[in-house]
Design brief:
Helices cover 67% and strands 3% of the residues. By secondary structure, it is mainly alpha-helical. The chain has one domain: Serine Threonine Protein Phosphatase 5, Tetratricopeptide repeat. The chain has a two-stranded parallel ribbon. It is elongated, with a radius of gyration of 21 Å.
């Protein structure tokens, strides 16, 4: 009887211990930044600035940036007219997430046509 209770309590503690919210990716303030970007036009520049700072900072605690974060930064640079920086971030996204290769290659190719030969 006592052994059964110990087993049940131990299992319950183990199950509850696994319920903590963790992420293998670094998201930073992505959700709030994107909300500001799309829904609060007066704060759009701050949202872009915060996102660009986050992706430029070194990733802490062994986490890597979530999929699309570098590409999002590239798109922000493209919208600002900095096509070379946009290409750089699209290449970083492609390197970090090989499954994005086709899309990133298409974006890079189109931007390189606008930039012209190096």
């Amino acid at each position: 009887m006592i052994n059964k209770r110990i087993v049940i309590i131990t299992m319950a503690l183990l199950l509850l211990g696994g319920c903590g919210a963790t992420s293998q990716y670094k998201w930073g303030n992505y959700e709030s930044n994107m909300f500001e970007y799309y829904h609060e036009p007066g704060r759009k520049d701050k949202a872009v600035s915060d996102h660009l700072k986050m992706v430029a900072s070194p990733v802490a605690q062994g986490q890597r940036l979530a999929p699309g974060m570098l590409a999002e930064a590239g798109t922000f640079y493209m919208e600002q007219g900095d096509l070379a920086k946009a290409i750089e971030y699209y290449q970083l996204e492609k390197a970090a997430w090989p499954e994005s290769t086709k899309l990133m290659d298409a974006l890079i190719e189109n931007l390189q046509k606008k930039v012209g030969p190096k």
